[in-house]
Records
---
Amino acid sequence: MSTTEVTPEVKPFIRILRELADADPAAPAITCGDHSVTRSELEARSNRLARAYEELGVGFGDFVTIGLPNSVDFYAAMIACWKLGAVPQPISYRLPAVERQAIVELANSKLVLGVPEGEHGDRVCVPSSFEPDAALDDGPLPEKLSPSMKAPTSGGSTGRPKLIVAGTPPEGSAFTGMAFGMQFGDVQLVPGPLYHNAPLVVSTYGLLMGHHVVVLPKFDAEAALLAIESHRVTWVNFVPTMMARMWRVIEPDPSRYDLSSLRTVWHMAAPCADWLKEAWIGLVGPEKLFELYGGTENQSVTVISGTDWLEHRGSVGKPLMGEMVIFDAEGNKAPVGEVGEIFMKRAEGTPPTYRYIGAEVREVNGWESLGDLGWMDADG
């Protein structure tokens, strides 16, 4: 047998999804509440939506604001944008109109999904109940590659909206999710809102690996536990608040819920209390629990396993991608153990991972900060 390594082929996401649909059209793609679609149904739905959006004026490079709740249609809308070479710009569907207006103006959105017509002046808006004309073709479109995978928002330290436009297009290898411990054919639970970066990205990687993506319409601790059991979920990503709420349900009777199907459990997006981390290590095992620290900007990330955390309690790990350093108030590298501001830098020779619309980068000598504080131990 040859030991030659095969470099995974880089393809547009839309091509990978189409190939998966062609290979196994009846395989489950997404379940959200009582609504499920197969791979072929998701492909047909997104094709028809793309043609409908095109008729509404969406073209290559345009921003499309997606103000939809967690749903199959959220994914179909995002994929439809990619098929036109447009940029999906997800926002919370609960945003007050005045806050949404500020984001829509920043994006100069060609289309706003999930709001009534006329909500944003002359801009084209369609409600969450929008259905494309059934006469529209649901077959493949000419392949295009959007200049950016996504453009989510962040309030930042000022509270003003800003867009974080991904520096890379929606293309890659179907194997990308392996960096997160994903396997082909996993069942992935998505407990978080899709307008947040992590749930959107990891579930996209899951779709590219043929996962059955099980999405909670909204987070509920018991609903999450029951979904893990009933769907035999193998891969999931939480935030600590979810873990705490689930633990409160589990703690009185740990044997009540069957979590034995879980192989990989991630958490990120906020600090995790030591007691909560220990509780989950006891629940699923240290070898299954992983933590990631980083930002939507994706300059650098750290990762730590539950096993390593037990030896470095409170740590979020070592940089796995890019570089991190701690600077003191004078902009000097802080000594080991001293709290300072965390600055990040992308790996040498890699292209920019993002650009802002509506904000300036906080930068010191080529290092960038998201405004977080932390410290390094002697092991880095």
Note: The chain is about 25% helix and 25% strand.
---
Amino acid sequence: MSIDLGNAPVGTPPTPTEQTQLRTSFGLGAADTVEFGGFVPPTGTTAEIDTLFSGSLAVPDAIYFDREEKKQWQAITSSTRQLISAPVSDGTCYYIDGRDGNDSTGAINNQSLPFKTITAAFGQFEVDAPTANTITFYLAPSLYDEVNVMAGLTIAAVKNVTIVCTAGVIFGSTSAGTIFDNSTGVCQFSGILGSPAIFTTNISPLYVGAALDADEDMSVFEVGSVKVSAAYDNLIGITSGRAKISVRAVNCAAGTQTGYSIVSASGGSSVIVSANSTTSGGVYGQTALRLNGASHGIISDTTANRFTWAKLVDASSILVVKSCSQSVPTFPPATVNCITADVATTNVFTQGTSGAVQGVDANVTVDSTFGSLVVGALAINLPIRG
């Protein structure tokens, strides 16, 4: 009598030999895993899924998820499909492409119909008057030479607006004005993300206006390389609320006015500033952080080359300097104070400074102990986190 072992039932648990046979049958290796109990559709970018269907490579009845537009498609055949779920969004999106966009055909929540200019996208936002309170503007790689892009915006006072920049976004204004002017409070500005570059012929501030200050929230500004080539007051001006600003590198060309600052905080605002590298041109006197109007500021992890860390305009503002360094060339000889003040102040605290640090001017008294008393004062007087 013979037994056909080829069709023998699999034991529980299967023997090592049976495990190998099962893996071989499914085309699996010893390290591969199989997961049951839920289905995750294949995902891809909009372009990848379009290519899949245009090349007749889709599997009939399979579901594909577009992670950019947040759509689900079901394949009818290898080249045709039907939409089975609309885009999912917790707010409203406007897409802007300075190279290939079209202001005449730009549409809300449609990445395939981007606007060409930021100004037109904000103008359509005013027309659409969406009910969502979260508004996001996505900028594709391009040079954006625009100012006052929010001019005429009247319906956004309670809207939370965020600017998201992909790699390759450049702001390079050739006109006077402010690129994102929120000085009259036209919206709740959440910040600028993605570290856009700011250079070429740049003669305009990036942002002026209030920052967020509700439910432990603050505005976030991520800035890449900055080339300042003309005279204007500051790159980012925070007039109230709380903001966290990081800048990779700033280079002030010769001729930039001495009063220029990367960040200016006023109106009792609270800011955290980190500028990895700052370099002044032929005229010294530029400042990483300027405080005015009983504002609070922390400047940290900043390397200044012929640049002043901070300037206090009034005696009520409070400054904390953490882990910063400054270098000034020995030739030609120059004196660049690391901290300056227009009035006498004792509200300056430092910790972990290094490098060839120059002095502070006669109005500044520095507390460098940063002991328990100062830490306590920081917790009370600087209600910012980060």
Note: The radius of gyration is 28 Å.
---
Amino acid sequence: MTLEAVVRAQVGQLALDVELTVAPGEVLAVLGPNGAGKTSLLKALCGLLPLAGGHVLLDGTPLDDPGAGVFVRPEQRPVGVVFQDYLLFPHLTALENVAFGLRARGTAAGAARKRAGEWLERVGLADHAGHRPRQLSGGQQQRVALARTMATDPRLLLLDEPLAALDAATRRTTRRDLRQQLAGFDGMRLLVTHDPVDAYTLADRVAVLDGGQVVQTGTIAAVTAHPRSRFVAELVGTNLLQGVCTEGVVRLANGAAVVVADPPAGDVFAAVRPSAVSLSRSAPSTDASVRNVWPAIVADLDRLGDRVRVLLEGEVPLTAEITAAALEALALRPGDAVHAAVKATEIDVYPA
């Protein structure tokens, strides 16, 4: 039994058209730029955004199927949501916050408090049962929100940027705790995140959304090895070009030519590591091993310790990574003209 979702909905100017499946015990991370449709997808799965088309099936039971006239209200779905800002009631204790979800579903007060106490113990907060949210750290609030959701025994758990509100140090420890807590949940889990570390640490597979559609899916290793969108390329810190390859030359949409080695023919992606891009003030001397030389303008400089990322504008837009010593030797400033060179063998080409 799985989550099977075909989500079609119009959200403002965004046409959401997403198909995905999640198996029991699996964590699917959903990545994508702002405005890609990630939050809208979660809203559709939990019933806050009715579908215009498609369906949502959970363990074979339809939760939303406009074609069949089926729509299960949010409070009646076996779906739990941990929101980015946790949405804890400030006037209730941790115990009362966890019990609230059960009480809202009709559980008697005594039974709800008993189960809430059990869940607080499971997330390591039994000693904080009487504390209100303002008396808890960000990581502790996140665990209370998770306990409140898990106490209702959902079959589908939705986590909307659950670590985004935490500082870097707290995020590391909370990420580790969250991984342990999710390991004991045999339902389906869907995690929305902007952080690739969350995906590496917590997810079995990733789905990349862009413009309301899934543009890439697979394991995090497979997705990052061959990015198919600029968003993923930026996540992994590489340059991504797209064009049509004929006889060893990739022609970009603007007509620029990129010479590559042993490529497939047809529509392709070409990935170039920033460290493979060399820079010079003047055109380099003819070298058979360097098949690509393009004029460019330095648009920006970003220092990362003893490395510097140089954003280049030109017919072939690239980011180069050079040493701080190389930057000083070249005396580069934004607006300077340079030449970028890349060996054909340093370009990874794969079908689009």
Note: Residues 6 and 54 are 5 Å apart (CA to CA).
---
Amino acid sequence: MENFFNYITSPLGNDEIDVWFKSNNICFEKLELFFDFSYGLNKIVNETYLGETSEMSEEDKQNHFMWCWKKNIENFERENIIFNINGDHLAYFIEFFNEIFYRQSEKKVRDSISTFLNETFNLNTSFTKSDLDIILTIYKSLDTNMVYIV
């Protein structure tokens, strides 16, 4: 239990964080791009969600998410940044938004996603091992599903 508590609460030193970023081959420009992707998706989901004014079925929620997902990918395609539509990145974000957005009755929790993303991707803050695991999961899932045109 103590190890778990340390995992989620103990900040790492700057040297440890630098080594971790280098050992995981994290490119800071891509990290910024993946923040933009995540933040853009959240913005589209929030701005088009009708659940506040009407009851949405599970199917409606999934259809809404997929519409938002495709819209976000299309927005990046306009900038010649291509992501696959399907893949583990889709599975990650579906689960994330189902848990933190669609299944939440409290608007305050749904609205906290943008704060969470800002804090997760803020390189000027301290990180715990848990924070770095979240970054790595998002980074790898988006990186492996980004189409590199040669």
Note: The chain has a mean pLDDT of 90.
